[in-house]
Amino acid sequence: MTPETMTSPMEPKARPLVSTDYRTLSYVTGPLIFVENVHGVAYDEMVAIRMPDGAHRSGQVLEVSGTTAVIQVFEGTRGIDVDMTEVRFLEEVARIDVSPDLLGRVLNGTGAPIDGGAPIIPERRLPMTGAPINPYTREKPADFIETGISAIDGLNTLVRGQKLPIFSGSGLPANELAAQIIRQARVKSGEEFAIVFGAMGITHRESAYFMNQFESTGALERVVFFLNLADDPTVERLLTPKAALTVAEYLAFEKDMQVLVVLSDMTNYCEALREVSTAREEVPGRRGYPGYMYTDLSMIYERAGRIKGRKGSVTQLPILTMPDDDITHPIPDLTGYITEGQIVLSRQLHRRAVYPPIDVLPCLSRLMNLGIGEGKTREDHREVANQLYAAYAQGRDLRKLVAIVGEEALSDNDRSYLRFADEFEKRIVGQGEEGRTIEDTLAISWELMAGLPMSELKRVRDFIDTYHPNAEQASDEA
User: Fold this and answer.
1) pLDDT beneath 70, residues of the chain
2) Least enclosed by CB within 10 Å: which of 67, 73, 135, 362?
3) Phi, psi at 303, each rounded to 5°
């Protein structure tokens, strides 16, 4: 067969190829094609596919067994003729063009610009596969990222290099929260800050919402927006987070920027993973998801972090939708094992029009202590967070008791905790769309704690004289 020049959508720089064209397709199923009698083919190798009508598609080798290669087709397999379609192996992995000019651009899931702007002149061309950071070269996360959300900054602080997922439910405002964080997030003055946003399987309405938010607030100038819509090829979703993280690593470790990566929605990514696994007729794991989903997710999440000797950092804020609000579902369950905490959205708070509806009790940031304290946030931050958690938890418990015995049976002390829980949800959690500094958050926290008896403020006793609104009265009572 005479070799001909073929161009892959993943390879924008056209170049003649001299490898063999194969017309040995034997089977098509879902997004996969099977090619027989192949030689010298490697796992993850990119593939150019030429249709009988001259159209081109791209793919990637998923598996090689003997002389049979299994290829996932990014644009889908509709219209592929088993007898007439030609396949060429490109002898390289998936790559993406990177440049500082990517900031402010909108790309598809494979990294090609779709905003109608000028072509991107690449500074480098990097493989998307990436790799988790070597534990030996990892630097301990130690700096605060201010999201402007009190329930996160005050109680579940996000630290540079951390991976902190947001667990949402169907219909909850996770996308609105993500857009607000992207608008408000900031680091220390004088440092370059960028956001890489990977949207996977979102609707056109959600896409329009994000674009409107970014453009109207000017946030798009510091955002690299990877957009994979619900009607885009499912398999493209498997490349979207890898492409996003490759750009994030380039900006962080080569351009010394502090990069926040927001990935939404990881559930759509896992569904795409399950679809490909089903097409390969693999033995399913829990609820039909492939048994290697934990490994696959860890290869994404573990690309967050800091590297010794480098100024930049990659911080991840993955968003996932829990099917049926089930936090034990395989996707949130495995994500919780890999990441350093979670932010959980509450349907009950959402029904009561509390925004953002963050349920702080099941939330956790395991690296919070590394990013707060004197010189980073404020010296009373940890103690204030502990006192708020304890008081709010007690107030929540008392609500259950009131449902049984009534509020009249409570002591004055108990009533103060009940009022505290209501005010906490109204003022700390339900801040609306306004952004807050960490100083604002801590000031409001002290105002709320002033409603509790002085004898109950055991965790912040050392700071009462300095920050309590009624410090003189507190000293007298003490």
Assistant:
1) 1-19, 471-478
2) 135
3) -85, 0
